[in-house]
Amino acid sequence: MNNSVAIDKHHREETIEHVHLPLRETQETHVTEATSTKKKPNYELLAAQLDEIKAHIKQKVGAEDAAYIRRIILIQRICEWSGRVLLMLGFVQPLLWVVGVLSLATAKILDNMEIGHNVMHGQYDWMNDKHINSKGYEWDIACDGASWNRVHNYEHHTYTNIIGKDRDFGYGLLRLSNDFRWRVKNLWQFATYIVLSVLFQWGVSYHEMAAERVFFGQKKDNRKNQVTHSELKKRFFSKGARQLLKDYVLFPLLAGPLFLWVFTGNLIANLLRNLWTSTIIFCGHFTGDVETFKEEDCVNETRGQWYYRQALGSSNIKGGNLFHVLTGHLSFQIEHHLFPDIPARRYREMAPKVEAVFKEHGMHYNTGGFLKQYASVLKRIIRYSFP
Amino acid sequence: MQQIKPAWRDGYFRAKVVTVKKLSPDMLEVLLRPESSWPTHVAGQHIALTIEINGRLTTRVFTIASGANTRQKEKQIRLVTKVKAQGALTPYLHACMPNQWVNISAPMGEFVWPKTEKPLLMIAGGSGITPFVAMLDDAINNTAVNQKAVHLLYFAKPNEHVLMDELSAFSKRCENFSYAILTKQKDGGVEAYLSYFANAHWLVCGPHTMFEQVESYAKTINAPLSSEHFAALPVLSDTSLSQSETFSLMHNGQSLTIDNQQTLLSQLQQAEQPVTYGCGMGICHQCQCVKKRGVVRDTRTGELSDSAEQLIQLCVSQAVTDLEIQL
After folding, report:
1. How many CB pairs (< 8 A) connect A and B?
2. A264 touching B, CB under 8 A?
3. H helices, E strands: number in chain B
4. Cβ distance B18 to B69 under 8 Å?
5. What is the rounded distance in angstroms from the CA atom of residue B61 to the CA atom of residue B309?
6. Which residues in chain A are closer than 8 Å to B279, comparing Cβ atoms?
7. Total-model pTM
8. Is A224 an interface residue toward B (CB < 8 Å)?
9. Which of A81, A186, A227, B132 has the most CB atoms around it within 10 Å of its CB?
10. Contact: A8, B262; criterion CB under 8 Å
11. Is A209:A202 a contact under the CB 8 Å cutoff?
12. What mean pLDDT comes out for the span A82-111?
């Protein structure tokens, strides 16, 4: 443990330096509102309790989880190929085409959420499987896996909801708290949100490049580059082009005279996937009660404080079995942020224990039905459209 | 794909378990039928065997204890192994059912019948008997080589010698082959026997200490020596963290000396090695890499890793043994 603290310090020294640098986004930060004035929990106890929940589940993880992820992958493959075949049978009976679109959309959702997201988090690395691990998996989405790994796994999961560090908070497009100064463009941010949802896979794909200011804008000083800009561009265009070719050229051409049937089918399947994933993800982080943090909060943070920040920066959605699977168990966003590398299906059994621990510490366990959480997100987007 | 062909995996060969049999309280014989595309081994070579244990693919290396001609004739190979109670794989071999599919690698290794005019001296320690049984299995049917005088010194703990009936069958069929069953307790160390075979080509397979004795003796009398030896993993205990120890870290062909006090990531950084990293606390998986061999400790939980190939996170791993990684 000592040693990991040592390296944390090394790492955080960099962070402290950056606080003094003229950052674009922190300059814009209003420090009028203390993010959390509530009584703070006993961080050590909190960390110990959550660690215990994790250790307990970790012991159970085994053959069952391996069989589960393989079964999901099988279902995903079946959905994908039956979907693609059904799209071509649309001329026999248009209903088949509709089923095909839904089937393909389901396949894409399963691939992105329950398989891609979770596998790339390293949840199944213990299996030692060459294909089901965070290094090897590549998903059916415009975003390059490695780029997503950097921005999502590193920035978002380490610096969750720290304004200026976690670009997932508002994606640099939306104003979702008073931490950002109001600008005129925020007036129509609801429309921006709709566009973002529709094009979500491209948003995710462009995310790292936006942060790095590869194409536009002033470069920020606090980003240590791990990958050169030209490499980023290359990966962005090659993965993006491959996805476009696959869905809008290759498969439609294979269908021959049914080009348009397949083309539109793929378009709608991608659209459904984009809307679904963006909605679920927004519900996980931008509901009304989710708190934000300042960069200072993260300096010399203990494990308990990290847990605390993860807990208050996320929100869950209640739902049934199928719903949880289709969200990739991101309906358990709180558990996911506390334990990102535990196989996601285990969040279900962890949730009641986590909730009990939160209660003991007087922490808010942010959960609710889908409609309630989504309404709360929309309210937040609209609320912060105005000064 | 695995629905149609169980255990079908890219980069592995498949093999079907034929039987699993106990040879002695802690020795196990496993017969495998490799798929037909598997390139047949040369007697003395080993394979990596991979089986799924509680969802985890676990790999260990075993010498094939049967000849290439047996594989040609009976389409199967044999592994003979000692079951280690603390082992990652061997305790689970019992549970392998006939007809179950497992994965094996292509045969590897250079420890084979030497091309030499000299007579042979085989020196086996414990389960080091296996490559010799494979070589004899092939040699006995080959008139070109079975004219050569071969003597086997077989050391093991009392009552732990295995495959004795096969050895006696070999010596009955071939008068040029003789062997001695020895125990260190009763018959003394290996050195005492070596001087009688100064003009032979020596082959040694056994524990590291035995190999060292034979090697130093071979040097003094200039006897040609082929060897294969295994270092039993040191018994790992949690107290070892209090003592600072140094190990070697091999990565991408370079070697580095590291200690067991700091994480691998911080030591790689100090050595100014090109390493990708992120959070430094085991969350983001940016510093993840493939560990080829060796054992590491997870700094968060104190858990020890497996000794075979695995993904590890550098920022939360400390060395427990010598390591080889791929950055």
Report:
1. 110
2. no
3. 8, 18
4. no
5. 11
6. 11, 154, 157-158
7. 0.78
8. no
9. B132
10. no
11. no
12. 90
